[in-house]
Task: inverse folding
């Protein structure tokens, strides 16, 4: 069961410039950047009430975020929903024919998995089960 929106992922070219923008324009603070995922993404979280904005910058010239920026430019990348039981969610989605990308694996916020935009009306969806 989906409980709430956990975060929204936004692709940016330059994380420091984006953090400075969120700070000076929106008066929102962001976390210190970390290298995430498979080591090709630099990430900083901006807290907005109960929802986070995940700022994503490619780290190096390879990887999914570098490809995304090259193809689509800066902007909305994915929505992440918090679920109570990720394995049950994945099983039920697969049974409905939804394309699940790989298996759930540990990440910054908990165990997460992505759903291909082909099966979700054009939106890359991440599901996370928090610890
Ligand atoms: Co995410």
Result:
């Amino acid at each position: 069961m989906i409980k709430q929106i956990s975060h929204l992922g936004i692709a940016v070219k330059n994380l420091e410039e984006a953090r400075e923008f969120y700070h000076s324009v929106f008066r929102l603070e962001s976390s210190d950047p970390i290298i995430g995922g498979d080591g090709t993404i630099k990430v900083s979280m901006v807290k907005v009430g109960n929802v986070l904005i995940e700022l994503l910058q490619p780290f190096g010239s390879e990887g999914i975020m570098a490809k995304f920026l090259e193809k689509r430019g800066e902007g909305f990348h994915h929505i992440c929903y918090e679920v109570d039981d990720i394995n049950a969610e994945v099983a039920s989605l697969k049974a409905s024919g939804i394309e699940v990308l790989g298996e759930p694996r540990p990440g910054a916020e908990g165990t997460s998995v992505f759903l291909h935009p082909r099966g979700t009306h054009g939106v890359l969806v991440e599901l996370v089960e928090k610890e």
